[in-house]
Design a protein that fits this description.
Blueprint: H1 3-14, H2 20-32, H3 43-53, H4 75-93, H5 95-102, E1 144-145, E2 150-151, H6 163-181, H7 184-187, H8 193-196, H9 204-213, E3 235-237, E4 243-252, E5 258-272, E6 281-293, E7 307-316, H10 334-338, E8 343-344, E9 365-366
Parallel strand pairs: 2-4, 8-9
Antiparallel strand pairs: 1-4, 3-5, 4-5, 5-6, 6-7
Length: 369
């Protein structure tokens, strides 16, 4: 509304008088229009104002304004990164345990052993072995069978031997383990002629042991120090498979010789020879042999043979008592009498092999079989 009308209302209401000069100035300003005079809003502005009043939920936000962008949440990515780092660390330190976590099927073979484990295998669900599944309920169920469970490293030149000669020596070292611990005839008590042929005939102490051990075995001269044997009149093997796990390593020995170390565990499922019941016992033997492939220019030897530097083994469920030259697994009530030695987890390959024996105080008692 023009300011002239507003002034007129004020003047009429108050009854006050103004000078003619002031009245003329007021009329001129009203006719020209004051800079701060209010203007009639347009129809569009009134429509917008009406719509805004009808939408109270928009609060104080402007109808053309936008909410500021929220900062990205990075915490979840940090957590994912940390977990991934932890998994990689566990895989690097204990790859076998990771394989175990994702492999529950006992029929899936474990990867070959390339280094000494850092801990024992995980506990298996207690299951009774059967003729069809003699390794059921045992870590050996996922071990390789026979010679396949003995890992052989890549050959390189050592001492007096070229890489090719080292490769051949490693193969013959494994042949000895097969002939002494896996040959079916030897396991049934036969003389291990094939294995003996690989031992240097010039190594007097070992040759003396071999002459005595099979005729009149004693604790000192016991064929079980080097060979696995069962008395066929008392014990029979269950099935055709012996489970194995272990590896060969090598280095340069004395006088430039190739020194090979074998650390292998053998699992033999056996039952009574007369099959009077269905009881199955697993005899578990872990052997460590150090073999020397000597330089014939420095040591008297025969081609294709080695000298035995040392031998030791641990055995559980192999019998305790009088030395007979055979493993004598305990069955039935005999198991209680046999379980008097030092407790041994026969599947734990993380510790060095102890000085085993087939009789006496060193006869181990298995914490599991």
């Amino acid at each position: 509304m023009p300011r002239g009308w507003e002034w007129a209302r004020v003047r009429s209401r108050t009854g006050s008088s103004r000078s003619d000069e002031e009245w003329e100035r007021f009329l001129r300003e009203s006719a020209a229009g004051a800079a701060d005079a209010p203007k009639e809003p347009s129809a569009r502005a009134r429509e917008v104002a009406k719509r805004l009043r009808a939408e109270p939920s928009r609060g104080m936000e402007g109808w053309r304004s936008y909410p500021p962008a929220r900062p990205r949440q990075r915490t979840s990515w940090y957590v994912v990164g940390l977990l991934a780092s932890l998994v990689l660390l566990v895989v690097a330190l204990a790859p076998e345990r990771i394989v175990d976590l994702f492999t529950d099927d006992d029929s899936t073979p474990m990867a070959a052993e390339t280094a000494r484990p850092t801990q024992a295998p995980r506990a298996e669900e207690a299951q009774r072995p059967t003729v069809q599944e003699p390794f059921r309920g045992s870590p050996a169920a996922r071990w390789a069978s026979g010679a396949a469970g003995i890992a052989v490293p890549k050959a390189r030149a050592v001492g007096w031997m070229s890489a090719g000669e080292v490769e051949q020596a490693l193969a013959r070292s494994r042949d000895f383990l097969v002939a002494s611990g896996l040959d079916r005839g030897v396991l049934r008590g036969e003389r291990p002629e094939e294995a003996i042929a690989l031992i240097s005939p010039h190594q007097k102490d070992v040759q003396d042991l071999l002459k005595t051990a099979f005729r009149t075995p004693t604790e000192k001269d016991d064929p079980l120090l080097l060979f696995s044997r069962f008395q066929p009149s008392d014990t029979q093997l269950v099935g055709d498979i012996v489970k194995t796990r272990g590896r060969l390593t090598y280095r340069e020995g004395e006088r430039g010789a190739l020194q090979v170390t074998a650390d292998v565990t053998f699992v033999y499922p056996v039952s009574r020879a007369d099959a009077s019941d269905d009881e199955i016992v697993r005899t578990i033997v872990r052997r460590e042999l150090v073999l020397s492939w000597d330089n014939p220019d420095k040591v008297i030897t025969e081609p294709g043979t080695f000298s035995i530097v040392s031998y030791k083994y641990d055995v559980t469920n192999g019998g305790c008592g009088t030395t007979t030259g055979y493993f004598t697994p305990p069955f039935g009530t005999d198991r209680g009498a046999d379980e008097t030695g030092t407790q041994i987890d026969p599947y734990d390959r993380s510790a060095p092999v102890g000085q085993g024996a087939s009789a006496g105080e060193n006869c181990g008692r298995a914490t599991r079989s």
